[in-house]
Amino acid sequence: MNECVRSVTEKRIRRAMEAVERNRMQAFYCERADEVAAFVKDLLPAGCSVSHGGSATLSECGVTDLLACGDYRYLDRSKAAGPEEIGKLYREVFSADWYLTSSNAVTEDGQLYNVDGNSNRVAAIAFGPAHVLVIVGCNKIVRDLGEAEARLEALAAPANTARLNSQTPCARTGRCEHCHSPARICCNTLITSFQRDPDRVKVLFVGEPLGF
To answer: With a threshold of 0.85, does the pTM exceed it?
Structure first.
């Protein structure tokens, strides 16, 4: 990253971190993506139960590989066979010690913006697992909720439909079409503005782009 761009990016990250803290969520920082897995390893107690939402970010920074290493009771959604078993696992996740995810966007005033299809991810962020760790690349920081929604419609949703091989209009056009497709992945929106429990939600900002 160009040093001038890095300087601006780091200032933006610091503003978002301070805002997240004001909203009673813990904020952390890793300068590089290759530092994230080690940070997560230090944070998660060996033997704890852990799961995660679907996320390109977690794969890109090595977190999903870490969770599968055998040190944790990993509730691995990729191992579930069929809709019934997947539904059972999603409900088991609500009792997990840790839930890891990324965020579609984080505003500079410290709000997390997430939109889901099955909605197991937004549900787990809102309630259930004892601890939630949200890992966010610098590309996810936006000015406000309006920009968060615009980012989702222009990039995150179409890119995720491509990742999931979803047969939706946005997969064909590359932009949100506000569709009524049965495969639609934008069904429920969660805005995390504040936490009553200041230890539950933790946001790890990364000084490099991750996910989409």
So the answer is: yes
